[in-house]
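Re: that chain you flagged

S.,

Sorry for the slow reply, it's been a week of failed gels. I finally had a moment to sit down with the sequence you sent. For the record, here it is as I used it:
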Amino acid sequence: MYLLDKDLVFPPVELASEEGLLAVGGDLSSERLLLAYRHGIFPWFGKGDPILWWSPDPRMVLFPEDLRVSSSMRKVLKRNSFEITFNRDFPAVIAQCASVSRKDQDDTWITREMKEAYIRLHESGFAVSVEVWQEDELAGGLYGIDLGHVFCGESMFSKVSNASKAGFITLVEKLKKENYKLVDCQVYTAHLASLGAREIPRNAFIRMLTGENRTSG
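Prediction finished late last night. Pasting the structure tokens below so you have them in one place:
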């Protein structure tokens, strides 16, 4: 396992363990986080643990054109049951993502340090939130990192049935119109697979992630 220090550098992702663990240590500065995401790496660690950096193989992604919307969700969206906004209340979205209880998870990985780091990224224009409102109450939402051609999803929450799904579908449809290459979903979940996401080899993901960066200078 690679031990990070104050230098802004990561080892090649091919050195990650079978589980995807690549490095430990460093910090959550905006510069390091952006460097990580641009190279297919993300932080994920529990409260009291050192900062752990991951790059799993295979990688779960959603190509916007592959988005699957069930007939029941189409009816939900058509009824305008929710008001969906972007970047209206990022701090509230990440706070809800941190506090919601999840199956087989005793504690949140979105620690105070993580929340502060992603709020800084939001303030600098890189972290994006999607809010799903019902009767002026926050019913669901999600947030992630916007790299300009790839959206790196981080977490979502739902307090009302279908709320987070409505927010995710609205986001992906927006990204499709703006010609984004893909949504990085990180690791497999049945929920994401039901929406059209699938696993691809990490090296294919990295090529799509970095190729645009090279051509754009």
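What I noticed first: The mean pLDDT is 93.

Talk soon,
D.
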